[in-house]
Each structure stands twice: as C-alpha cells, then as structure tokens.
Amino acid sequence: MASPRNHLLTLLLPLALTGPLPASADNAFVTDPEAPTPSSVREGTRWQERATPPPPWPEEADLIEFELDQPHAGFRYFIDGRHLQVGSDDVVRYTLVAQAPSGARNLSFEGLRCTPRGTYKTYAYGAAGRFVLLDEPQWQPIGDHAHERFRQELWRHHFCVPRGFTPRPRKDMLRSLQGHIAPRQNSGFLTD
C-alpha cells in the first residue's frame, strides 16, 4: 500500500510541471475586459443651481399664514405668496416670516428642493427692511427637529408632489398654503 506522502506527491507533481496558471484562470467568470454599455444608456445631466437675487421686502397683504400639524411654541408662519417661485432649476424659493408670540418677526429668503428627504438653503435673512445675503450658503437636509417643523410641512404638504419629488405648480402651492387642498390630496395615497 502506498504511503499517504507518496500519494500526495503523485497528485501534486502534474500541477507543478504545468507551471504557473495564466491570470485569467484566477477568475473564470471574467471573459471581457469591460461589459458593453447599452446604446439606450445616456449620461445624465448634472443638476445646476440658478443664481437668484432676493425678492423685495414682503407686503403685509401678500403674506399667507400656514399652520403646522403640531404647534411650535406659539410661533406663526407666513409665506410671501406674491414672490413664491419655482425656478428653472426646480428649486422652490420663498420668503418665510416667523412671528413670535410677542409679535417680533424673523424673515428669511430660502430655497427648498423636492428631493426624497428634502433639502433647503437659507440665502438671506431680513433686517431693517432689506435682505442681507449669507456668504456661501450650503444645502442642508431638512431635519426632524422641532425648530425645523415648518420646513417639514412645506416640503411634505405644500411645495412638493407627494412621492413625485418634483415641485407642485405654483398655483397649487398657493392653494395648499391657503388650506384649499384637503390633507388627503397632500398625502400621496388614494382617497376612499
């Protein structure tokens, strides 16, 4: 009977005589250097933000109050309906007025994108009847923080098409802010 050592040598000797295996033998599944790309696949267009100057200071008659699903420490929120706009870059730009219970107002000029989780950018803050632009503002995700609840509402219920991730037509935004669109129409679900 052959010893186990001699049996192993008999098995390994033919492999040693053949020399090193070619590189393609390392991965038997690679047959082409690169798979061909279908002709229907096109390079996407990279999103480019459009520069937009701040709007004029809002007039009291143009302010539309919108209510939050949950109260926010007594603040009231308004959008300047006259200067609400959707840019060619699909950014919804608006002037927001946040009024404290004391009557003091904070104004900001912001942009909102209807991405799957929503992003926003604050371009300027209002002070002494004019807007002061920020240096290099950045897009931020809309958070779940209580102080950002108004942005969640604007993104979810007023400015964006539910599950479409595109801005609503401006007239529908205004109707929604004014409460003329029922909550079920804003939910993205079919009505009964």
UniProtKB/TrEMBL annotation:
Domain CNP1-like uncharacterised: 43-178
Keywords noted in UniProt: Signal
InterPro entries: CNP1-like_dom
Signal peptide: 1-25
A Pfam family of this chain: CNP1
Domain of life: Bacteria
Disordered as annotated region, ranges: 27-56
Annotated coiled-coil segments of the chain: none
Protein name: CNP1-like uncharacterized domain-containing protein
Lineage: Bacteria, Pseudomonadati, Pseudomonadota, Gammaproteobacteria, Chromatiales
